[in-house]
Amino acid sequence: MGARSSATRPRAVGRAAGLVLGGATLLTLLSGCSIEDWGSAFGNFGWPSRGISLQAHQMYDLWIASTIAALTVGIGVWGLIFWCVIRYRKRGEELPVQTRFNMPMEILYTVTPILIVAVLFFYTAVVQTNVDKLSKNPDQVVEIVAFKWNWQFNYRDGMGEKANTVASTVGSSDVIPILVLPVGEKIRFEETSKDVIHSFWVPEMLFKRDVFPGSVRNVFEVTLDKEGRYVGRCAELCGTYHAFMNFELVTVSSEEFDRFLAAKKAGQSTQEALVAIGEAPFATKTSPFNTRRQQHSWNQPETVAAGK
Ligand SMILES: [Cu+2]
For the whole model, what pTM was predicted? Predict the structure, then answer.
């Protein structure tokens, strides 16, 4: 009995592992599902959407594929655990056959994880390189200026600090700043802060990057491919009103963007220029927050005046 089990056991384990992996691969191939189908079937595995830029789509695909790979391995491992628990449960006082140094098994569980990590690493490196790629001739350059606690967006006539601002939008406590950008064009973002570290984040871009004060000018490039309105946020705890540092990204066609920029250059306000291209003048995805600074302050004017 013992001799028979020890001979068949490794083969049975190998067969089960092969079945799990083969089954998962076959299921994916036969169902003909794209990564996007899998993602939307499972609520994007925690991401807000497939994203609104070419770079976002690549990150999304990597995320969904990695999660499916992790779940496939997970299901295989859980299956083997439960199978062992049931198949080899204690049946008597006799000590079962002790198997060790099973070379095929040792090689299998050394080589398989190395292969999985190598594949994940390869695709991560490819996607990261693409997301960080900067082109020599971007179609638009926009300077992101962060300050406590709002944003300024400067449309530039070239790259780098020495370029000139041709149009600008700045937010206030009453008006959410709106960043209008075209789809289908390479947009270069150049970030700078007036005070502390902030972080430029549009959740739908599936991307954020820190905004530093001083001489560090973080740069990244994005090609947007979906028109719409998206809320943007500061993603770095930068002080008391950090949570109120919202802006709105409005993506429009190239032709509308050109008209918007022309209107801005002609001296119109951002709100007037938005109306000129048929867009709502104020933010629709977020609204200014009532900070109630005075009301919430223990340092009320009358207290200060009374010298208390
Ligand atoms: Cu901030």
Answer: 0.81
